[in-house]
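Protocol step 4 of 5: obtain the predicted structure for the target chain.
Materials: sequence only (see below). No template structures provided, no constraints applied. The aim of this step is simply to have a reference model before the mutagenesis design in step 5. Sequence pasted as it appears in the construct record:
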Amino acid sequence: MASSQPFTADIHTHILPADLPDIGVRHGLEGFIRLEHSGPGCARMMQGSRVFRELKANSWDPEVRIAECDRAGVDLQVLSTIPVLFSYGAPALAALDLARHLNDHLASVVARYPDRFVGLGTVPLQEPDLAIAEMERCIRDLGLVGIEIGSHVNGWNLSAPELFPFFAAAERLSAALFVHPWDMMGRERMPDYWLPWLVGMPAEASLAICSLIFGGVLERLPRLRVAVAHGGGAFPFTFGRIERGWAVRPDLVAVDNPRSPRDYLDRLYFDTLVHDSRALEYLIAFAGVEHLALGSDYPFPLGESEPGALIRSLESLPDADKARLLGGTAREWLNIDSDATDHRRSLTS
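Step 4 output (structure tokens):
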């Protein structure tokens, strides 16, 4: 019998292979992340001699993930890589080597558990032609539904003309794009208190959105489907200032795209990872439930420890709106047929 609870999809989760290769050794380079297993169900992401992050088995073991999803009431996870593995600063062929390994692994997990996972690939955006070819492989050959990209690519913001062919190819392939902040601005001024993650990440998300709007990417590609992590970061909460800047200094702001940023709000999706009920209520008022989808940043500590709990805690929100946030918007952004996701639920209920 099908569950009485609404279909729930988490669009913001990260995974990596347990056998992450040492791409640096393979290509004679330094700076690549490698994985060192330190005990049963425990590992460290290492960058040279530095521990980048401690991990548990839920970062790579799909069966552990499924058990945790079952406890949280999550029917479907959207899998994507950990942003540090974008490797945009590496030589493009080495980054492509890593991306192909990550994408093959992710696709194998989806193929093994098609009722529980869909996948977003990663591509070497520092070389857009290679990125387009790998995106085509992800969508056409591996059966992934989209691509996760960073908030910038080295010195390029997402408005860079060098990146436009990639966005055009994503629209042509009907690939969902998930923009995740990474390599945060101002790190040299934020060495303490985890400030790059607390202050830099929200700013990076806003930078990415403003670049897509003011650079004309959304204007020129009306069918491009873009979702932004962490509730859009600072963008929704500073939108009044952004719109005011467009109105009073068009000579500085409207140089590449003359339309108001408000005209593009219905073109963007955001996840719900804002951690505070009042912030989520504002985000709903700002974007509408039809543009918001559950995202937890599973399995990392800065994410939502019980995916969907914040949405369910909003007592004044109608059940239909909660259902939209928990799963309906994800279906639309991912272009997943509702019959297919209902079938997934029937298999696991």
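Step 4 remarks: Residues 339-349 have pLDDT under 50 and may be disordered. The chain has one domain: 9-348.
Proceed to step 5.
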